[in-house]
Design goal:
With 407 residues, the protein is mainly alpha-helical. It contains 18 helices and no strands.
């Protein structure tokens, strides 16, 4: 593991790595886990029927907004260092993104469908499960209705679709400016939202969560604002803007309540995510040193390393623990909640880390078919591998890249 990043943007350009981003991913992933633990015990969303002091766990949706901003920021780092161009073009970018996110997602989809059909929702028939599996496998669950085998999967489709628009944002930015490209994207998103308010059939636009495209673009803008000489001058106003946005959400949520906030998630996402983008720009410019050190701590880096696996797998595991382990004990809700946190969450993290090692890590090291050679099932199924294993001459494939490669 690399040491915590306390570098300036200039040094980041040399290393092409911003370690504290892993801390943000890890924190966001754990927030989603806590949200689903809370939801399993007090399932009256969007009303908060639990203790007031855990009411903040109701807003797990905002962790997805953070993920999207971080995604836009991290994917824009390398292109912005090259003047806004994708190395190898759009086709290479999409191919590498597919190898990065789809294999682990598809495996998690298989696990989730089996767990849902056998343990969580056995009343679903084969037909409904099959439709849900196909719809989610094609990443069109935000456009077509079906049962969901995993409540966290909706955002994977949204982000996958955003990847196809990202090259257009960069292209527009190279022709005009990044600020113009981002502001135009945000404007288009707002117009789309207003059209969705007109009702059927335009209301289906809202199912695509268009605000996340705006948040992704704001993540791209954060790279631009946090880079260069101007970044130091912008640090204070960006910090103030970010804190006001996040503090404003806290005040509004406390005054208006969760039902009001959830009903207005489009605008809440943009304001909250915009605030996160401002703070990320501040950190990228070299500010918020203590915050960066905390995010780049050993725990932050470790959680961030397998945050994607945590996100993919935790939902059905929480469901199994609640329905088949702690639920049948008929304990007080608060006791069940405590057991899920103290016993369930550590167990879930262990399982998710194992999933990461087997089904995610190989595709972090190598973004092509050769990554399949690192998956244990490949060694079991491949006759060639079995022969090599018998002869005692097995060796790691020489074409696997051992270091992360910038997109």
């Amino acid at each position: 593991m690399e040491p915590p990043a306390t570098t300036t943007p200039a040094n980041d350009q040399e290393t092409q790595r911003v370690d504290w981003l892993d801390g943000i991913r890890g924190a966001a992933a754990m927030f989603v886990v806590l949200h689903h633990v809370w939801l399993a015990v007090w399932p009256a969303f969007p009303r908060n029927t639990g203790p007031w002091w855990v009411g903040w766990m109701l807003y797990g949706h905002l962790a997805v907004a953070v993920f999207i901003v971080v995604s836009g920021f991290s994917l824009a780092l390398a292109p912005m260092r090259r003047g806004g161009s994708l190395r190898g073009g759009t086709r290479r970018f999409l191919r590498r993104r597919a190898w990065r996110i789809l294999p682990a997602y598809w495996v998690a989809l298989i696990f989730s469908t089996i767990i849902t059909g056998c343990l969580l929702q056995p009343q679903y028939g084969i037909s409904a499960l099959t439709r849900g599996f196909v719809v989610h496998g094609l990443l069109i669950q935000d456009a077509l209705g079906s049962i969901t085998p995993n409540g966290a999967f909706w955002s994977i489709a949204v982000e996958w679709q955003i990847y196809f628009i990202f090259p257009l944002i960069l292209w527009f930015g190279s022709k005009a400016s990044i600020r113009a490209a981002v502001m135009s994207t945000v404007a288009v998103v707002i117009v789309a939202h207003e059209l969705a308010e007109w009702g059927t059939p335009l209301n289906k636009i809202g199912h695509l969560s268009p605000q996340f495209l705006a948040l992704f673009a704001l993540g791209v803008l954060a790279v631009h604002l946090g880079h260069g000489d101007r970044a130091v001058k912008l640090r204070r106003p960006l910090m103030v803007t970010g804190l006001v946005a996040l503090g404003g959400f806290v005040i509004v949520a406390a005054v208006q309540g969760s039902v009001w906030v959830v009903d207005r998630y489009f605008w809440v996402d943009i304001i909250f995510g915009g605030g996160v983008a401002c703070l990320i720009a501040v950190m990228y410019s070299g500010g918020a040193v203590r915050g960066r050190r905390l995010l780049a701590s050993r725990v932050g880096l470790r959680l961030g390393l397998f945050s994607y696996s945590i996100y993919l797998l935790h939902g059905p595991l929480v469901g199994v623990l609640e329905q088949h382990v702690f639920g049948p004990m008929h304990l007080a809700r608060l006791v069940t909640f405590g057991l899920l946190l103290a016993v369930g969450v550590p167990a879930i993290l262990v399982l998710c880390y194992g999933f990461h090692l087997v089904f995610e890590a190989p595709f972090m090291r190598c973004r092509d078919v050769s990554a399949l050679r690192a998956i244990p099932i490949f060694h079991i199924l491949s006759p060639h591998r079995r022969r090599v294993g018998v002869s005692g001459a097995a060796a790691a494939p020489s074409d696997v890249v051992t270091a992360r490669e910038a997109t």
